[in-house]
Each structure stands twice: as structure tokens, then as C-alpha cells.
Amino acid sequence: MHPLAFGLFAWQAGCVFTLRAMQLWAEPAKAQARLTAYALEKQRAFAAGAVAAGRAGLAGAAAPAILAAALAPAQRRVRANARRLAKGR
Q1: Which of 31, 47, 48, 81 could disulfide-link to 73, CB 3.0 to 4.6 Å?
Q2: pTM higher than 0.90, yes or no?
Q3: Are the CB atoms for 89 and 27 separated by under 8 Å?
Q4: DSSP state of 59
Q5: What does the domain layout of the chain look like in residue ranges?
Q6: Residue 2 has what DSSP assignment?
Q7: Which residues of 71-80 are buried (b: 16+ CB within 10 A; e: fewer)?
Q8: Could you give the 3-state DSSP secondary structure of residue 87?
Q9: CB neighbours of 60 closer than 8 A, spacing ≥ 6?
Q10: For residue 30, what is the DSSP state?
């Protein structure tokens, strides 16, 4: 994975976390349902990344390719969440 891509991923993840925390603070009545959805979303991304990393490893990929495969599902979710939150949704 390119270092700049990883840096962007880390920055986007921090922004998503901050914006979601602000939403939870502003609307505490909706917190339970939102926290459950956020946790499930992360679990699905982690599981997809683990499967992708396993496939890449079994196919004989090098370590950087395995890392990229493992992080790809989380990156897609974080990027989508950042876009959605930037639009105010």
C-alpha cells in the first residue's frame, strides 16, 4: 500500500469518527441504534478484509498485496462514510 494512501485512509477514519461522535452527542436519543449499526459495519469490513487477506496469501501474494487486500474493505467503508458525512447525511 502506498504510504500516502494509508495516510489518507487514517485521516478519513479520524474525520468519520469525529463527525459521528458529534452526531451522537447532538442526538443522544438515536445513539443506541447508530452505535449498533456502526459496530456491525466495522465487523463486516473486518471479516471481508480477513477473507481477502487469506485469499491473497493462499494465492502467493507478497506481504504488501496481502495488507492492501486486508485493508480494502475498511477503506471503501471509510471513504463512503466520509463522503456521506461531508454531504450532511
Answers
A1: 48
A2: no
A3: no
A4: T
A5: 3-86
A6: -
A7: bbbbbebbee
A8: coil
A9: none
A10: G
State the average pLDDT over residues 15-27: 92
Cβ partners under 8 Å of residue 81, min gap 6:
16, 20
3 pLDDT higher than 80: no
CA dihedral sign of residues 15, 71, 49, 83: positive
Cα 22 to Cα 83: distance, rounded to the nearest angstrom = 16
With b meaning 16 or more CB within 10 Å and e meaning fewer, what string describes 6-45? eeebeebbeebeebeeeeeeeeeeeeeeeeeeeeeeeeeb
Chain Cα centroid distance, residue 46 = 8
User: pLDDT tens across 28-84, in order?
Assistant: 998 888 899 999 999 999 999 999 999 999 999 999 999 999 999 999 999 999 999
